[in-house]
Amino acid sequence: MTTAKICGLNDAVTMSAALDGGASHVGLVFYEKSPRAVKAFDAAALCLLARDRATRVGLFVNPTDDFLDIILNDVELDLIQLHGSESPDRVAKIASRTEKSVMKVIPIAERKDVKNAESYFEVADWLLFDAKPPDMLEGALPGGNAITFDWKLLSGKAWPLPWMLAGGLSAKNVADAIRITRAPVVDTSSGTEDYPGLKNPHKIRSFLKEVENCK
């Protein structure tokens, strides 16, 4: 059965909508250039709401050791999501330093991108396949750009690690995405928003309901 991660949560109302709707994972963004970024103080309170109810994921982009220390000192996270250009060596060092499970994001645009996952098999605990931002996309973020990739690139694939599918997923297309990829977890951010950074509780519930119906 496929479960869901709601990423980019930044207030108690939408966090509660995700938890009450049955999200298996909830994501908080610690990347200041993102409209979804949350401060450590607020993130700590949100993570308390999610304790024992969902896996709490912190999204980082090429974080320094000092920045990780600052956030993890105040915020109770279960999984670190690395959404930058972190090398396998850097992923291993972050996992060792933080003693946390680590998920490496693999940006996908074409078939050759899928093979990049192989270099992280020995150092990551999770993989997340997301749409690679087009070079010409103005103001592109590492993720959450409301764009998809060809899901058939993952069709029939088996991985030695647990994994998630992201990239422009919404209540309208998530059933097709699950059917094609058989993803064990689907991850959405922009697909549950009215605009970047503003989550809509109704869209969160609708997305989670669609995922629940894919049995």
Task: Please summarize what this structure is.
The protein has 215 residues and is α/β, with parallel strands linked by helices.
Question: What structural category characterises the helix and strand content?
Answer: alpha/beta
CATH superfamily: Aldolase class I
Relative helix content:
25-40%
Q: Give the uncertain stretches in residue-range form.
A: none
| SS field, number of helical segments | 7
Q: From the coordinates shown, what is the CATH architecture?
A: Alpha-Beta Barrel
Sheet with most strands: strand arrangement: 1-2-3-4-5-6-7-8
Over all CA atoms, what is the radius of gyration? 16 Å
The largest sheet is: 8 strands, parallel, barrel
Domain tally: 1
Mass-distribution shape:
globular
| Mean pLDDT value | 94
Distance between the termini: 6 Å
How many E strands? Answer: 10
How much of the sequence lies in strands comes to 15-25%
List descriptors.
single chain; alpha/beta; 8-stranded parallel barrel; 7 helices; 31% helix; 21% strand; globular
Question: Could you walk me through the main structural features you see in this protein, from its secondary elements to its overall organization?
Answer:
By secondary structure, the protein is of the alpha/beta class. The protein is 31% helix and 21% strand. It has helices spanning 12-20, 40-50, 65-74, 88-98, 111-114, 174-181, 201-213, and strands spanning 3-6, 25-29, 55-60, 79-82, 101-108, 126-131, 163-165, 185-188, 193-195, 198-199. The strands form 2 sheets. The protein has an 8-stranded parallel β-barrel with strand order 1-2-3-4-5-6-7-8, surrounded by 5 helices. A hairpin with a 2-residue loop joins strand 9 and strand 10 (198-199). The longest helix is centred in the last third of the chain and has 13 residues, at 201-213. It is globular, with a radius of gyration of 16 Å. The model has no long low-confidence stretch (mean pLDDT 94).
